[in-house]
Design goal:
globular; DHBP synthase; single chain
Length: 193
């Protein structure tokens, strides 16, 4: 496990290049978002996604959301009605997870059994690195089930930290889990506030 300061990840070209390369090669990351610390990897890499499930002690049947590398990715990888497209344009980037119907281009390791996919674009500088990598990136809270979310690197269980390749330390985050909107139809429902 390598710990990298967020400022170095953003401002040192050689460090940023190493992170982008790691993302594309299936490395597992702990990283800051606009809500809490997350754990993630390339959403198209089934082995890496499985490693995250194991680190969190999560059932494989439970899928993860992704950070989209841009809104164009959302439009081409999920079914989005015109009403919802307008709303997504307004609220993303932001502290929201949007549930949409996956299409044939969606990364298979993160499609739910009901053919849905959860998508985020956090309002956080780390998202710029995901965009640069150009891949959908798993985003799930780094805490264990029924444990409070991690707002600092120190809050993260040691066994989870040692199971990842990179930890991006963004300092203390003042936030809570993202708000979830189900936008599979024009009748939008809020799943979590």
């Amino acid at each position: 496990m390598e710990i990298i300061k967020l400022t170095d990840a953003l401002n040192k070209p050689d460090v940023r290049k190493k992170i982008v390369s790691g993302m594309k090669k299936g490395s597992i990351f702990i990283y800051p978002t606009d809500t809490i610390y997350g754990i993630g990897c390339d959403a198209e890499d089934g082995n890496a996604v499985e490693r995250i499930s194991e680190a969190k002690g999560r059932e494989e049947s439970k899928t993860f959301s992704v950070i989209a590398p841009g809104k164009e990715w959302i439009w081409s990888h999920a079914s989005v009605g015109m009403v919802n497209k307008g709303l997504i344009e307004k609220i993303l980037p932001g502290p929201y997870t949007i549930i949409l119907t996956a299409n044939s281009k969606s990364p298979k390791p993160v499609i739910s059994p009901d053919k849905s996919i959860g998508v985020r674009i956090p309002r956080h500088p780390f998202t710029d690195i995901v965009e640069e990598a150009g891949i959908p990136f798993v985003t799930t809270s780094v805490n264990m089930k029924d444990e409070p979310p991690a707002t600092t690197i120190g809050n993260i269980p040691e066994h989870v930290k040692i199971s990842v390749d990179f930890v991006i330390d963004g300092g203390k985050i003042v936030g809570s889990a993202s708000r979830i909107f189900d936008m599979r139809t024009d009748d939008i429902s809020v799943l979590r506030r």
